[in-house]
Amino acid sequence: MTQDLTNEYRSDVMKQLAVLSSLSFVLLQLIGPRAWGQDTSRLTLWYNAPAQEWVEALPLGNGRLGAMVFGVPGRERLQLNEQTVWAGGPYRNDNPKALQALPAVRQLIFDGKYSEARALISEKFITDIAHDMPYQTVGNLILSFPGHVRYSRLYRELDLDRAVATTTYDVDGVSFKRESFCSFADQVIVFRISASKPGMVTFLASMDSPQMSTVSTEGGTRIVLHGRTSTYQGIEGKVVFQALAEIRTEGGRISSTDSTLLVENANTATVYISIATNFRNYKDVGGDAHAKAVAFLGAALRKEYGKAREEHIAAYQKYFHRVRIDLGTSDSTNNPTDVRVAHFAGGDDPQLVSLYFQFGRYLLISSSQPGGQPANLQGLWNDVLFPPWGSKYTTNINTEMNYWPSEVTNLPEMHEPLVQMIRELSESGQQTARTMYGARGWVLHHNTDIWRATAPIDGSWGQWPTGGAWLSQHLWEKFLFGGDTDYLRSVYPVMKSAAEFFCDFLVEEPVHTWLVVSPSASPENAPAIHRESSSAGTTMDNQLVFDLFSNTIRAAQILGVDNDFVDELMVKRDRLPPMQIGRFGQLQEWMFDWDSPDDRHRHVSQLYGLYPGSHISPRRTPELFDAARTSLIHRGDVSTGWSMGWKINLWARLLDGDHAYKLITDQLRLVRSDSASASSGGTYANLFDAHPPFQIDGNFGCTAGISEMLLQSHDGAIHILPALPAVWKKGSISGLRARGGFEVSIEWKNGRAKSVTLTSLLGGNCRIRTLNRLKPDGQFELVQAEGENPNPFYKVPHIRKPLISDKAQLKRVDPGTSYLYDIATVAGTTYQLRADPD
Length: 838
Fold this sequence. Notes:
By secondary structure, this protein is an alpha+beta fold. 31% of the residues lie in helices and 23% in strands. The strands form eight sheets. Strands 1-6-7-8-9-16-13-12-11 form a nine-stranded antiparallel beta sheet. The protein has a seven-stranded antiparallel beta sheet with strand order 2-3-4-5-10-15-14.
């Protein structure tokens, strides 16, 4: 094909694309609600129009590679990501001036001179080198189809059961089908085009990128995109990437120019996209991007398409099929997904909640695979060089929230990339602890990136040194769910090192002589009384350090090590501040009673102890339970998307299923990017969470919250249906995990458990709490439980009595009637229980 002819095709395509938008409205009126009669019971996101913007495109991923598929007939776009494509290169951003200034900052805070403390923190603590690097896009594969703007009967879907995206439509009596997946088995993105008549597949393929890059062709069938990531804030871009797009056809012919491929009159065409970088680890970018990309591509090309798709689906389904959920269905499933979201609040669509729950699991499987990087602020999907907040790892809530569904929804392998990042942060954070604070151990503040930077960034609110404590909680929780002592032995040094930092960093405050974290902040918030974030002894910090010390003590005792260190931790733990209930009956956010009932801040940091922590219980700590509820009421419901995801979990822990469901309704509110409000989140058409803009933590938070409504295991027992809303009158869920190595399936009717199935993976006592009486369905003994649960995985923390303001008016807490049973289980055995009609 000559250059002139290729240009002619390009010109023809662009002219036809220009009229696409004007034709779309008319065509959609002719299409009808659904073109192909799809099975409405399937777990699919589906639409009868192409994506007009990025938050309408459909996400594919295999943990390492990501693609957003737009489904535009005339000009298909696959926006491409690879998990290690970040700006900059290995660097450090510690501020050595902090160490000398530390005593002065603490004194200013203790003297109540918060603005002066903020100014000194900004000057001496916040990095003056680099404020972490952004995650970046690779670029795009563009497929232009002459004549395909005249389409009808368009249908596009993302099948969550198979992790496959499909677009179908008709042009001039010919039916076209596009099928794409991001292969878990072969580490390539596969895009296949077919037609109902032979010889009808014709298109022009090209690639582009906003990166510093070049595009060329090789061998007449391959496009090569070669690039380097951005230099940012003085840190040279050192990630080299290569993206290869190879086309294989059945019939027809392929011709090339210097930068494009033209497929003409093929029966089918399959595009294989391989992407790799020179990234080896956070300290080493000495890999060979070209060799890795070629190796992935070569292996994939040796497989027949049908077999490649089959192996991809099998690799994905071994994770996805572990959990099934049924909350009911309705006629709403006949509507496209965006219409369902728009109508959810005023309609009857329980299956949309099931879909959203499983979409969260799909996203976690697709963005976090063993051996790779953890899901970042946008998971894996980002279409620009400098995304909002850099699409980094924000560790004062967002990174942690990404992994709240991992253990409970039976995806423990997806947790492993976060665990590995914590190991690496414990290495890089040691230098920050020494340089900035003269302390042992390791420290992390409120953000990090692929280079594992650990210094405080942004502004004085970034001086929050408790990120390592929160991330260490994930190490312990993973052990509680899985019970693997070898795993615990491997992560114990990381937990110990994090605890050592706080042993050195805690300082005695002058009013109560408590040991507190200072300087710090309650993440991203400031009290109305003085509007300065710099603080000491914030409630979240106290809770986090309490958990870190407690978990490290228990881990050391299980492993039989470090008796002297355990004694040190116990002494220091006893000197941490207790939780406090303020004059409004609220759980105080700060060491002093500064809260305002009018504060609607998106962060509810003081409620960490309610969720994901386990400090607050209706039975063990009723005063704190009521105070936490009051604080949550003060904050309100509607907020940013991720904040509403957190609140679903909090209301579930407060055993209020109807209020949790109200937050789900608020979350499932359709947001169009051109009308997004910065103070009101929701859900985009493709079910991405709207902060806005897009943040994936809201998806994961809501999935975790739905799990928490149906099953809890943090308060001494496995609680069955603890926060079931009235609208879910009947339903079932199978395959959830509880702490202590139990898998749980539940079927319910009229708000009560009809059957419960428990599989014990570790053995030991299984204590369950239910709202109705159960009886064994089999030959085992079900006894009424008394006293403390003897299962060590269910040991509850001893929480000190709170300090309560004499102005506080607390309400009585009634957790309701429940039944508590024990089963002595044997590892590998399944136990079934039925509702007892008596």
